[in-house]
């Protein structure tokens, strides 16, 4: 019922190991619906892509663009899951927004990794994968550096070996051609020094070539190495100048022997270096290690429910206060009779306070838990009832110099309480011995017949249309002198019906039969019906609901009534909150006064 079968109710679980979609469906939402007995279907915007897929089996769409593999599915038939294949960049952004790296202590070299997310187990697994990948990449990076050095040495060794063989061959041939003599003590000493410098230069040049594979020529290590090599070259130039002082045969022998020994020493050093790098590569370990494995906290870190609740309460209160102030600033409502009298130079005949008891019983009646209440009949000692008696007295003086017995009650807009005022005022007049009739002249939304528990028809509209006589439409209310004329059948053209001369005849007939005729009319801003009826009345009162009706609406209503040359007798301020500051401090007190038995 209500489509609730597609919602999860607890215990549902799905494990998806593969979701392949084309590029244009990345980030789009697919719907997987459990069909029962391990079957499922996949939909895109209500269009089926995969029908009758099975758990543990690859499911492929008819066009072959979408592939799904569900390893596990536990859900009632009809339960729907939302599947989204994110792009690589979106997945990286999503992970980065929840991932934090911080140093445990400044200069410690220890990093703390933190990952937040709704699934604690998945967070722990992801975090372990991150630090394992970091350690593995560190080892692979060092191993790659050793591998590049080995490749470089393997390329240089054959060439250097050939140079060694060639240098030794030239040296041996020279000795044979010159009948093999040896260097003097001074030449031998000079040779050792030259060989040492040449060997060191060759090693540095090899080291520089390896560094250039990873760094630019402006790197500090390469610059320092270049400075050392320049100092060695300076020493070599000094040795060269000393060698030129030797006999020519000694110079040639020393040059060939130096070349042979330097190449041989360099080849041996390079061969040893290559072997060392192979050993290092075989036992390569990184300089990064995991101190503590990823663990899940025993309670969620976010959201902080207590803080969230407290902030929500504070913000909710502030938002409510701000809304009230903003509403009052943008829409100035009537909250006191002084505002009405100053703005329109008309008297406020009565201020009717809010009656919580009455409205409580009224709500019970709307729920079918009792009969609709009438305030002055059921709660005669209520403060609102006493205010209505004051309105009755004011009405007596308002009609004293008027020709006619009709009193019209209207309002700027609905829900101002004019029907409530009309019925209760009529009850009070009947109690005072006046033959009174209430006419529900709101032919659009009249509802007084519901309060009195009588039928709507026949009524005023039927009498005007000639479908019923006035005597047939009038209903007595109890044993009092109060009578009621309902609206009758709702006509399709209320305004045209109320403009007819037949209405004047009906009202004249009622004035001849009753001491007072109370006309409950339609709101003047909602339709012209209210003004049409009010034009036939001897006194017109405008009902204003305190705290709801704005001054702008009252101004428009007064202007609409005056436009048809209908005088307004005054205002009735209804449902004024007894706890409001203006009600308490402005002087509108109501005292309950009754006789003791």
Structure description:
With 597 residues, the protein is of the alpha/beta class. It has 4 domains: 4-85, no CATH class; 142-282, no CATH class; 304-330; 334-585, Rossmann fold (3-Layer(aba) Sandwich), CATH 3.40.50.300. 49% of the residues lie in helices and 16% in strands. It is built from 19 helices and 17 strands. It has helices at residues 88-98, 120-177, 185-212, 220-243, 248-282, 305-330, 337-344, 356-366, 375-378, 383-398, 418-431, 448-452, 460-465, 470-473, 494-498, 501-513, 529-534, 551-563, 581-585; strands at residues 13-20, 29-36, 39-44, 47-54, 58-60, 67-74, 80-84, 99-103, 111-115, 348-353, 406-410, 436-440, 475-476, 482-485, 516-520, 539-545, 570-576. An 8-stranded mixed sheet has the order 10-17-16-11-15-12-14-13, sandwiched between helices. The chain has a 4-stranded antiparallel sheet with strand order 4-3-2-7, with no helix packed on it. It has a 3-stranded antiparallel sheet with strand order 1-6-5, with no helix packed on it. β3 (39-44) and β4 form a beta hairpin. α2 (120-177) runs antiparallel to α5 and α10 crosses α11. It is elongated, with a radius of gyration of 52 Å. The two termini are 61 Å apart.
């Amino acid at each position: 019922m209500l489509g609730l079968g597609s919602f999860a109710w607890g215990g549902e679980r799905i494990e998806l190991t593969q979701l392949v979609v084309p590029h244009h469906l990345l980030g789009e939402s697919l719907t997987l619906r459990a069909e029962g007995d391990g079957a499922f279907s996949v939909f895109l915007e209500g269009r089926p892509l995969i029908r009758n897929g099975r758990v543990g089996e690859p499911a492929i769409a008819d066009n072959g663009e979408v592939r799904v593999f569900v390893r596990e599915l536990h859900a009632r038939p009809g339960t729907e899951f939302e599947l989204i294949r994110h792009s690589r960049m979106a997945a990286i952004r999503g992970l980065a927004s929840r991932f934090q790296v911080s140093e445990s202590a400044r200069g410690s070299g220890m990093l703390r990794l933190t990952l937040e997310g709704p699934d604690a187990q998945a967070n722990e697994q992801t975090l372990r994968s991150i630090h394992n990948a970091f350690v593995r990449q560190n080892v692979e990076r060092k191993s790659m550096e050793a591998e590049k050095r080995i490749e470089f040495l393997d390329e240089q060794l054959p060439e250097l070996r050939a140079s060694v063989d060639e240098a030794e061959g030239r040296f041996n041939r020279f000795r044979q051609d010159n009948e093999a003599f040896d260097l003097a003590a001074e030449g031998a000493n000079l040779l050792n020094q030259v060989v040492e410098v040449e060997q060191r230069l060759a090693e540095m040049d090899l080291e520089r070539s390896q560094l250039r594979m990873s760094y630019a020529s402006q790197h500090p290590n390469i610059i320092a190495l270049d400075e050392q090599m320049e100092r060695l070259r300076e020493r070599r130039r000094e040795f060269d100048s000393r060698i030129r002082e030797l006999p020519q045969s000694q110079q040639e022998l020393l040059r060939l022997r130096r070349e042979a020994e330097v190449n041989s020493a360099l080849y041996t050093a390079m061969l040893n270096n290559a072997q060392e790098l192979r050993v290092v590569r075989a036992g390569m370990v990184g300089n990064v290690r995991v101190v503590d494995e990823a663990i899940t906290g025993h309670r969620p870190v976010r959201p902080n429910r207590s803080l969230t609740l407290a902030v929500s309460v504070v913000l909710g209160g502030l938002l409510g206060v701000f809304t009230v102030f903003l509403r009052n600033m943008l829409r100035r409502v009537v909250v006191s009779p002084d505002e009405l009298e100053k703005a329109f130079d008309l008297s406020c005949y009565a201020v009717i306070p809010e009656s919580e008891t009455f409205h409580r019983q009224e709500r019970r009646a709307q729920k079918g838990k009792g009969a609709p209440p009438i305030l002055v009949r059921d709660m005669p000692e209520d403060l609102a009832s006493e205010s209505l008696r004051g309105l009755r007295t004011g009405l007596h003086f308002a009609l004293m110099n008027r020709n006619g017995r009709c009193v019209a009650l209207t309002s700027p807009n609905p829900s101002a309480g004019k029907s409530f005022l009309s019925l209760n005022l009529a009850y009070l007049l009947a109690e005072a011995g006046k033959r009174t009739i209430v006419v529900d002249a709101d032919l659009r939304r009249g509802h007084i017949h519901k309060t009195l528990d009588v039928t709507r028809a026949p009524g005023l509209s039927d009498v005007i249309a000639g479908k019923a006589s006035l005597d047939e439409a009038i209903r007595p209310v109890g044993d009092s002198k109060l009578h009621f004329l309902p609206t009758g059948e709702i006509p399709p053209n209320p305004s045209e019906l109320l403009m007819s001369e037949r209405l004047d005849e009906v009202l004249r007939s009622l004035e001849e039969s009753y001491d007072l005729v109370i006309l409950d009319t339609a709101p003047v801003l909602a339709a012209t019906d209210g003004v049409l009826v009010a034009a036939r009345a001897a006194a017109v009162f405008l009902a204003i609901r305190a705290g709801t009706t704005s001054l702008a609406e009252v101004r428009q209503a007064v202007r609409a009534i005056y436009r048809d040359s209908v005088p307004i007798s005054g205002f009735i301020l209804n449902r004024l909150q007894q706890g409001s500051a203006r009600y308490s401090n402005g002087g509108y007190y109501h005292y309950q006064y009754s006789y003791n038995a």
